[in-house]
Amino acid sequence: MKTAIFAHRGASGYAPENTMPAFQLAYELGAEGIETDVQLTKDGIPVLVHDEQVKRTTDGRGFIKNLTFEEVRRLDAGSWFSRKFTGTVIPSLEEFLEWAVDKPLYLNIELKNNKIDYSNLEAIVYDTVLRFGLQKHCTLSTFNEESVKKIKRIGNSISAALLTSRAEGNPVTKAAKLGADALHIKYRLLGSNVMMHADKQQMPVRVYTVNKKVHMLQCMKLKADGIFTDLPDKALEYKNTY
Ligand code: G3P
Ligand code: CA
Asked: Which of 17, 103, 139, 225 could bridge to 9 as Cys pair (CB 3.0-4.6 Å)?
């Protein structure tokens, strides 16, 4: 099977990350999947933002966990990237799923709970995905090992992936021990040994964040199940000629 191309935070090389314009563009460019990051506002609404603080990607300040949904929606999440995206807002998970529901896209929702312990994040995201009937088209991923176990305790309807950037030990074994259905690994950790172990365990391996042509081709050569890239159009071009 060929390597699936996931747009990392949407087509984030061309539009402000984790916004509806970035997701829409990824879809129009032909991405097979979309990766996004989820956190909870002060009032418990799941919203799509990568950093714990809003400073880098909006005109505001503070932690997502300390802002209400209404306050988050007042932020401009587009103009930092380019003036033409001024007025773009941070989407809720619900808005994203509503947009994705009739599209042939695979979704990877990363729970951003490795630095902040959003105690109910797993259940909230899980239930929201189920509500849209997208469980077969979605993987929940996290760097937080306890969170992988929590997701799997909720049920078996949605697959869970362990994210790792750590070189120590065998990441495939670690993911399997936690009950993960997939391993999402930093590019520099990918090698034929990882793929060999993954094949034995029948564990899909997806690789982040792959933006260079030579790295994309290496993932395809090693038959990685997926890559996360800011440049989905480039990856698709290489994939089609590979
Ligand atoms: O899900 C893959 C990748 O997005 C993980 O790293 O920092 O870009 O969220 P990061
Ligand atoms: Ca991510």
From this structure: 17
Q: Is 74 in the pocket of ligand 1 (CB under 6 A)?
A: no
Q: What span, in angstroms and rounded, lies between the C-alpha atoms of 169 and 145?
A: 14
Which regions of the chain are under pLDDT 70? none
Amino acid, single-letter form, for residue 26: A
The distance from CA 182 to its chain's CA centroid, rounded to whole angstroms, is: 13
d(CA 110, CA 99): 18
**Predicted model pTM:** 0.98
Q: Using a 6 Å cutoff on CB, does residue 228 contact ligand 1?
A: yes
C-alpha 51 to ligand 2 mean position (Å): 9
CATH number of 4-42+91-241: 3.20.20.190
- What pLDDT sits at residue 168? 85
Q: Does ipTM surpass 0.85 in this model?
A: yes
